[in-house]
Amino acid sequence: MVQTVDRQRVVPLTLLLAVSLVLLACRVPAAGEGNPVVSSPTQGATQQPTPTPSTERVDVTIRNATLRPVDTQQTELVVDLTVPDACTEVRYAVTREGMRIRIAVWGERPLGVMCAQVLRDEQVVIPIGFAVNGGFVVELNGVELSPSPEENSVGEPGTGALDYGLASVEQVEIRSVDDNPRHVILEIQGHLPDACAELVEHPSISIVGKEVMVQLEWERPRGLMCAQVLRPFTTSVDLGELEPGTYTLIVNDLQTTFEVE
Length: 261
What we know:
five-stranded mixed beta sheet, disordered N terminus, 1 helix, about 50% strand, about 260 residues, four-stranded mixed beta sheet, elongated
């Protein structure tokens, strides 16, 4: 069956549809109508600013450190150090990994503050929290100290266990006493290896035949952390009266000869 479409009816319907679309497009939306506004992911979100550090970390110079027993249950570490300016405050942290105790010491100072560049010597007492016996290894800023507090210095050099070494000798002057040319005295110059080492009070002297051997040693308390600076020294060694002749002189690693009239 063939359906016939009446052209006169189609045209008015098409015209009516077009007019409806135009009216719909021109219609002003009422309050609350229309498409919703889509915000970008950051729009309207509260942004937390990245906190700006108020201090900076600075290095401090550790002059020496000594493990010291407080009682049978506690050990503490006494650290003598130098901070670089008037604003720096000393901080420390103690951690334990098995039988190894790691202690870190550093300085902190405010950012953006002008500080007087004056070196300050300070002493910090750091509690370990328990008794440190011979089975422990204690590190201070990566340097191992003696594992036993009994082996460290407490007080002045010579009151605890000591480390020894040979002093570095640079020059030896041989002279005689004015009224006795056979009385020989050595004037020795050299340097010590760090800020803690001191010359042993009485050097070792050996005279065998025409060979004179002098041994100059330094000593320092065991377990100290010391500034690694060479310290010059001058000392006199009295050899007493020697028989006339030519002598070989050995002072540590320096060798020379001298004459006694």
